[in-house]
Design a protein that fits this description.
This protein has a single domain, classed as Ubiquitin-like (UB roll), CATH 3.10.20.810. 11% of the residues lie in helices and 36% in strands. The protein is globular and about 40 Å long. The chain starts with 12 loop residues before the first strand and ends with a helix. This is Phosphoribosyl-AMP cyclohydrolase. It is an enzyme of class 3 (hydrolase). It catalyses: 1-(5-phospho-beta-D-ribosyl)-ATP + H2O = 1-(5-phospho-beta-D-ribosyl)-5'-AMP + diphosphate + H(+); 1-(5-phospho-beta-D-ribosyl)-5'-AMP + H2O = 1-(5-phospho-beta-D-ribosyl)-5-[(5-phospho-beta-D-ribosylamino)methylideneamino]imidazole-4-carboxamide. Its cofactor is Zn(2+); Mg(2+).
Length: 124
């Protein structure tokens, strides 16, 4: 059956969200079995928040949901790649398109992902 092996890593598996059209990696989060089931049921990404210790519907507060187009699972059944459509343009809680918004080039750090919204306005 096509499902992650949640027992291998203490009930959580890494889930990489990748833009289905561009291939851009937008974020890394974790899923437990409940998040997996909700994602399959709704067609939108759900994760397990390790910091808040609760189920998290991506974009539930901001409206920047992730519509799942397809899901890939690795050879060990313990890591997922969600090919998604990022609604609203921002995957990161900092308001940027991608959580990977800093880039190291020639020893210098620069920002490489645009700001899409002001988090102070969205997460009051």
């Amino acid at each position: 059956m096509f499902a992650p092996d949640f027992d291998k890593q203490g009930g959580l598996v890494p889930a990489i969200a990748q833009d289905a059209d561009t291939g851009e990696v937008l974020m890394l989060a974790y899923m437990n079995e409940e998040a997996w089931k909700r994602t399959l049921e709704t067609g939108e990404a759900h994760y397990w928040s390790r910091s808040r210790q609760c189920l998290w519907h991506k974009g539930g507060t901001s409206g920047h949901v992730q519509k799942v187009r397809s899901i890939r699972i690795d050879c060990d059944d313990d890591t997922l790649v969600l090919m998604i459509e990022q609604v609203g343009g921002a995957a990161c809680h900092t308001g940027r398109r991608s959580c990977f918004f800093r880039e190291l080039v020639n020893g210098e750090v620069s920002e490489c992902s645009p700001m899409v919204f002001d988090p102070k306005e969205v997460y009051r």
